[in-house]
């Protein structure tokens, strides 16, 4: 039996209330100038001590009809979604429905023998060695793949990049399989589990693991790429329907509620949060000395980026300083990590 978060926790959470209007910041506006106007845009949120210190949107959510981006606009998070997939596994571990050290094949027995020693912990920390499903897809097949299709692709491959647990390699395949495990262990489906156990309890009412034909994303933002000097809609690719590795849509206003929940036990026990935020493996990626469960770890910073066709996003958290910067954009470039760090420095430098 899972536990319900006490309603009193939400009554006292400023992040759950209507977002406070934050004062303008000409310095941040200057950094965001390229996103302003009649172009694909961005939403920026800075949270300091649980309050919005800066909250503003720029540019267009849909270039064709000039719909403006607002703080309620829902962007495809891409790999920023992975922290929610990890949280779902940790919730089920708290329920006693699974263990993070379960063999993967306990839940997905159709995988080949090479997966015999792979554990859920290795999927969470990108140490499974599973092949990238994108490399196994038929380029001539233009149909969208789903999480179950990822499993079917991997069922045919009795090989891994390395012995499971011996190395690190970022794996979208692993997180797609984790979504299937959430479905198996919960008796639900991944999107419904997230909505019922994470999004709705936290008041993230407009956040969805989006399934075409199943739900409608309110205030939806569409992705664009600059091609031959023009912005062209590039909102979906053949991998955009895979949920576990990147299929969540959310806004800066809803992500403020998620950020608040990472400071206390309204959703996950402190021990589970510690697992997510602790180094599980070393990496050779820039600014990522370690990876936890759905989070990159760089000193005091916890962060994750998300890149998919037409979207580039990042969340950077400094829990000790109670500072979070979120930048969501609906264009193919540039990656906004450096931008978020520059924004964060305005508060980090002021505190020194």
Q: Can you describe this structure in just a few lines?
A:
This protein is an alpha+beta fold and 352 residues long.
Can you give keywords for this protein?
15 strands, alpha+beta, 8-stranded antiparallel β-sheet, globular
Description:
- This protein has 352 residues and is of the alpha+beta class.
- Helices cover 29% and strands 20% of the residues.
- The protein is built from twelve helices and 15 strands.
- The strands form four sheets. An eight-stranded antiparallel sheet has the order 2-1-15-14-13-12-11-10, with helices on both faces.
- Strand 7 (224-227) and strand 8 (230-233) form a beta hairpin.
- It is globular.
- The protein starts with 6 loop residues before the first helix and ends with a helix.
- Residues 1-18 have low confidence and may be disordered.
Percent helix, as a range, is 25-40%
Radius of gyration: 19 Å
**H-E string:** HHEEEEEHHHHHHHEEEEHHEEEEEEH
Q: Helix tally?
A: 12
SSE class: alpha+beta
Distance between the first and last residues' Cα = 46 Å
**What's the main sheet like?**
8 strands, antiparallel
Low-pLDDT sequence parts: 1-18
Q: If strands are numbered along the chain, what order do they take across the biggest sheet? A: 2-1-15-14-13-12-11-10
